[in-house]
Design goal:
By secondary structure, the protein is mainly alpha-helical. The protein is built from 20 helices and no strands. Helix 14 packs across helix 15.
């Protein structure tokens, strides 16, 4: 199989997995929201902030560095796995020792042991590094997909069982640990890990030179995507943090349903084409177009139905999430459409460029985070995210246009048709909401008629090309000619 069909088939495999896991996750989150309180969700969100911090810093960009590398690959795997494990042990130890001071800073004593339990997941994740990276580099996405499904299914079952047994926020935290352990076992099933610790100093320096900018970008991304939770906890309260986290999670995750697909499939694929500018351009354009077809209608539709969505599924206790959810839905679209640019930067060895963009937008974001929450609450923070993502998307797109030598306006025009169709779909949803209110029936009708309106508009605007491309994409994913 040539690289292009193989890539498309890989996207299909991972895409189907992603759709399944996100649908399962969203259903489980609705059930958990009915069983737990906003305060429970806020506490769990704080634990995830520090889990993400330790994971990001201990990764040190080693996964991207190994996937990008084309020489001395075996030595790179062994060296990177050793360093990744060592970094994780250090991070877990520091986090365990700092649990009490961090909990006191956040004015929540119950977080002390929550943070200590969370520190155990750092090492568990690290020892799966070599297996998961080998699977990615060899394009074995079917196996990776099964490991991700394993985590989501185990996490979902564990969280629901513990929540209904009265374990409060601990239900989600213990489920995270159990799910991570299950995913590790699945990884070892597909790619057994031989316990060996070895560091080649020359290879290590090369990996760190590449990884330092990738990690720098990851740390900046962490600050942007996680520090808002700490600010809201400090200047609002834990219950509002839980409500905010629901808005943030659904708003970002739903439009970005295929972002993880792009990141996990396209980067290893593009790394093998790093010197072929024309091939990179074709894949970038194709990826951006297909992501636009999916992310724009989902994001715009969620923004239009946010009030009905929150009230019908979560209940009146969560109604304050509606407005920030509508804003985060647009942020999710921009985040999704930016992911192809990130993969171009990494696959062409321009991690430094990605870091520079991240740095420039992160500094003002962090400076404005506290004023945004103090004067605008949850919605103020959501609007700050929107402003940042607009800057990131257009700046990143402009840089990619320079790298791949294409016309900026002509390439960007492919977003116009899904945007117009999505706005018409939104009008249909708002009209139905005016007639049927915020009931579950209203939500079902809005989704059904909204999707129909979007497909009809896209079909008309593209003169049936949308339908033909959809069929070709599905056939490619399923391995049909």
């Amino acid at each position: 199989m040539s690289r292009a069909p193989r890539t498309l088939a890989s996207i299909g495999i991972v895409g189907i997995t992603q759709v399944f896991t996100i649908i399962l996750y969203q259903v489980v989150m609705v059930l958990l929201a009915r069983a737990l309180t906003p305060n429970d969700f806020g506490t769990y969100a704080l634990c995830l902030v520090f889990i993400n911090l330790a994971t990001t810093t201990s990764m040190f960009g080693l996964d991207a560095a190994v996937i990008y590398r084309q020489s001395a690959v075996e030595e790179a795997f062994r060296t990177a796995a050793t360093m990744r494990t060592a970094f994780a042990v250090v991070a877990a130890t520091l986090f365990f020792l700092l649990s009490a001071p961090l909990a006191r800073f956040l004015e929540s004593d119950e977080l002390i042991w929550a943070f200590r339990v969370a520190s155990l997941t750092f090492v568990v994740s690290a020892i799966g590094f070599e297996s998961s990276t080998r699977l990615s580099k060899s394009l074995r996405f079917r196996s990776l997909s099964i490991t991700k499904i394993t985590y989501q299914v185990v996490w979902s079952a564990s969280a629901l069982a513990l929540a209904y047994l009265g374990w409060h926020f601990w239900s989600m935290l213990y489920a995270y640990f159990i799910g991570t352990a299950a995913m590790l076992l699945a990884l070892w099933h597909f790619q057994p890990w031989k316990i060996r610790f070895e560091i080649n100093s020359g290879v290590a320096r090369e990996l760190l030179r590449y990884g330092v900018f990738s990690m720098g970008s990851a740390i900046l991304a962490f600050l942007v995507w996680n520090m808002d939770k700490i600010v809201i906890e400090r200047y609002l309260d834990t219950s509002l943090l839980g409500i905010y986290w629901i808005a943030f999670t659904y708003g970002i995750v739903s439009p970005s349903i295929f972002t993880n697909v792009v990141n996990s499939v396209m980067f290893p694929t593009l790394s093998g084409l790093q010197d072929d500018k024309e091939a990179l351009k074709i894949r970038y354009s194709l990826t951006l177009k297909y992501l636009a077809y999916v992310s724009i209608p989902i994001g715009v539709g969620l923004a239009a139905t946010s009030n009905t969505f929150v009230t019908a599924l979560f209940g009146s206790e969560w109604k304050q999430a509606a407005i920030p959810l509508s804003v985060f839905s647009i942020v999710g679209i921009l985040s999704c459409l930016n992911s192809p640019a990130v993969n171009i930067f990494l696959s062409t060895g321009r991690a430094r460029t990605m870091f520079a963009i991240s740095l420039v937008v992160t500094v003002p974001f962090l400076m404005l985070a506290i004023p945004s929450v103090v004067y605008g609450g949850m919605t103020g923070m959501a609007l700050l995210f929107l402003a940042m993502m607009i800057a990131v998307f257009f700046w990143g797109y402009s840089k990619v246009a320079g790298i791949l030598s294409f016309q900026r306006i002509a390439e960007l025009s492919m977003l116009a048709k899904p945007a117009i169709s999505s706005l018409i779909m939104a009008c249909v949803c708002l009209l139905l909401a005016g007639f049927f209110g915020t009931s579950l029936l209203s939500l079902v009708l809005q989704v059904a008629f909204g999707v129909a309106a979007y497909v009809a508009c896209m079909t008309a605007l593209t003169r049936n090309q949308f339908i033909r491309e959809a069929k070709e994409l599905v056939n490619g994913m399923l391995g049909k000619t």
